[in-house]
Design goal:
- This protein is an alpha+beta fold.
- It has helices spanning about 55-65, 85-100, 110-125, 130-135, 185-195, 200-220, 225-240, 245-255, 280-290, and strands spanning about 1-15, 25-40, 45, 50, 70-75, 140-145, 150-155, 160-165, 170-175, 260-265, 270-275, 295-300, 305.
- It has two domains: about 1-170, Ribosomal Protein S5, domain 2 (2-Layer Sandwich), CATH 3.30.230.10; about 175-295, GHMP kinase, C-terminal domain (Alpha-Beta Plaits).
- Helix content is about 40%, strand content about 25%.
- The longest helix is centred in the last third of the chain and has 22 residues, at about 200-220.
- The termini are close together.
- The protein binds (3R)-3-hydroxy-3-methyl-5-(phosphonooxy)pentanoic acid.
């Protein structure tokens, strides 16, 4: 048997623009998914027969990383599913890693690449941000150019993403989950059609790329005030790209007076927002009063690891 666990993530800055090759920065969080693979008489998940549709990520992980005799996959998750905190990436990365470990082939770059292929197959369209962050842990800067701290490069179609290590200071964020699950694929497709037809949308994508690099600098200086300003600006640009939602806006508005900054995180259209604050209790209360579910997370968690 092999067991591996992988962290969830939050996108600090750069979601959506990263699909167009712009930089993004994502941070691993202290909530994990643990997956174990063991010999079995049939392909199964948590002891029950695997259903390709219901277990889409695990089934695609088997195609990418296994190709052996039937196995059972046991998963234990601390990450609320559909919350935008990277549960699908963490289940994929932990399963791929456990499968590769049981074949004696565990290595981070291969896990990241195979896990991206799994997300692509299931979602149709994706950047490798989530899966590489869940694999590497700590923080990951995605960039079209090679920078210091280079980890690996992932290519797909006309796009190429260089992944880099990002040092992450000890920070806590409050995540506000709207309870609304919005699929990433259609939101990405909506932004794509806007960008193809609208000059302002293209400008917003470029500006998000600049914000990300300023944000990386603010993060390295632990300049929470500047980082918060950049988060706020990024959020407005994302709203302009049509991925906001009234429920998200209520949580952002509730959190901002008590925070350095607040923005949606991930695909939007529901999902979650994040607030950077020194007062996680008060912001949690404000988010709850505005109808959201607050989750306090710390960032910079360890990446995928063997737990057997
Ligand atoms: O829905 P999430 O949290 O996995 O985030 C998606 C982020 C996007 O930039 C919108 C898409 C992507 O694959 O990078």
């Amino acid at each position: 048997m092999s067991r591996c666990s992988a962290p969830g993530k939050m996108i600090l800055l750069g979601e959506h623009a990263v699909v167009f090759g712009k930089p993004a920065v994502a941070l691993a969080i202290n909530l994990r998914i643990s997956s174990a693979v063991s010999k079995s008489t049939q392909y199964s998940v948590n002891g029950r027969a695997m259903q390709k549709r219901h277990h889409a990520y695990i089934s695609a992980a088997l195609d990418q990383a296994w190709g052996g005799p039937p196995i059972n996959v046991d998963t234990i998750s601390e990450i609320p599913s559909g919350s935008g905190l990277g549960s699908s990436a963490a289940v994929t990365v932990s399963c791929v890693a456990a499968m590769m470990a049981s074949k004696g082939k565990f290595n981070h770059e291969a896990v990241a690449k195979k896990s991206f292929a799994v997300e692509l197959k299931v979602q149709g369209s994706a950047s490798p941000t989530d899966t590489s962050t869940s694999t590497h842990g700590e923080g990951v800067i995605v960039s079209p150019e090679k920078l210091d701290g280079f980890l690996w490069r992932i290519e797909h179609g006309d796009n190429a993403w260089n992944m880099h290590h990002c040092d992450v200071p000890k920070l806590r964020f409050v995540v506000g989950y709207t309870g609304i699950h919005a699929a990433t694929g259609p939101l990405v497709a909506g932004v794509r059609s806007l960008v193809e037809s609208n000059k302002d949308a293209r400008r917003s994508i470029d500006r998000i790329g600049e914000i990300v690099m300023d944000g990386v600098e603010a993060l390295s200086k632990q300049d929470k005030k500047r980082l918060g300003q950049l988060m706020n600006e990024d959020h407005e640009l994302l709203n302009g790209l049509g991925v906001g939602h009234s429920a998200l806006e209520e949580l952002v508005v509730a959190a901002r007076p008590l925070s350095f900054g607040a923005k949606l995180t991930g695909a939007g259209g529901g999902g979650s927002m994040i607030a950077l604050t020194d007062d996680v209790e008060k912001v949690s209360e404000a988010i709850r009063s505005a109808g959201g579910e607050p989750i306090v997370v710390s960032v910079g968690a360890e990446g995928v690891r063997r737990d057997d």
